[in-house]
Amino acid sequence: MSRVGKKPIALPSGVDAKLDQSKITVKGPLGELSRSLYPKLSVKKMDSTIVVERPSDQKLYREMHGLTRNLIANMVTGVSTGYEKTLQISGVGYKAALHGSSLLLNLGFSHPVVYPVPEGIKATVDPKQNSITLKGIDKQLVGQVAATIRGIKKPEPYKGKGIKYSTETIKMKEGKAGKGKK
Questions:
Q1: Read out DSSP for 13-73?
Q2: Burial bucket for residue 79 (CB in 10 Å: 0-12, 13-18, 19+)
Q3: Based on the domain organization, do 135 and 88 belong to the same domain?
Q4: Is 75:35 a contact under the CB 8 Å cutoff?
Q5: 130-180 pLDDT, tens per residue?
Q6: In CATH, what number is assigned to the domain containing residue 111?
Q7: What would the pLDDT profile of 15-62 be if each residue is shown by its tens digit?
Q8: Do both 21 and 45 map to the same domain?
Q9: Residues 127 and 150 in one domain
Q10: Within a domain: 108
Q11: pLDDT tens digit string along 86-142?
């Protein structure tokens, strides 16, 4: 049996879940999320918990069991506390600024890069203009936006310039001038 799939999902106070035939809607203090469910799995709401069950031990059902449970748990966490990712910008002259609902990034290119922040994501830039914080209720969307912004100028391993996650460490490499010296 799936260890992840058989764990019940606790609904915190202020969070409500509605189940239809093949759709779940979770509503909380930060917003509302809905997702279609795999039709063969049964999702049941009992008091203040949600339980996901599978019809048999076939490989597909075992795979979908844990996945469905985690997706619902992420929805519950998103509408109750939300998700946050922080990006750090390093490099001389590299900075970020909010311009309406878009991020204006100066990253050493010949032109500033304008990134439109999608609906459902709240972006903030610190006063030093070298840190971007992304907040939202959809874990997948927050992660995708952070990865897209990081992909504009990935951190390079020789000087460390670029955009990186705040939890990421860049393994620095030695340049070719330092290789031959002993």
A1: TT-EEEE-SSEEEEEETTEEEEEE--TTSEEEEETTEEEEE-SS--HHHHHHHHHHHHHHH
A2: buried
A3: yes
A4: yes
A5: 999 999 999 999 999 999 999 999 999 999 899 999 999 989 988 887 665
A6: 3.90.930.12
A7: 999 998 889 999 999 999 999 998 889 999 988 999 999 999 899 998
A8: yes
A9: yes
A10: yes
A11: 999 998 999 999 999 999 999 999 999 999 999 999 999 999 999 999 999 999 999
Q: How many residues does the chain have?
A: 182
CB 103 within 8 A of CB 146: no
Within this chain, do residues 70 and 102 fall inside the same structural domain, yes or no?
Answer: no
Does residue 2 lie in a domain region? no
Asked, for residue 179, whether it belongs to a domain, the answer is no
26: how many CB neighbours lie within 10 A of its CB?
Answer: 25
Written as six digits, the tokens of 75 are 């929805």
Task: List the domain range (segments joined by +) for residue 145.
Answer: 83-165
Co-location of 62 and 130 in the same domain: no
Cα distance between residue 71 and residue 23, in whole Å: 12
Q: How far is CA 133 from CA 37, 68, 72, 89, in A?
A: 31, 28, 25, 11
Shared domain for 59 and 111, answered yes or no, is no
Q: How many structural domains are present in the chain?
A: 2
- The residue type of 95 is K
DSSP character at residue 11: P
Tokens 């764990």 belong to residue:
7
Residue 174 in any domain: the answer is no
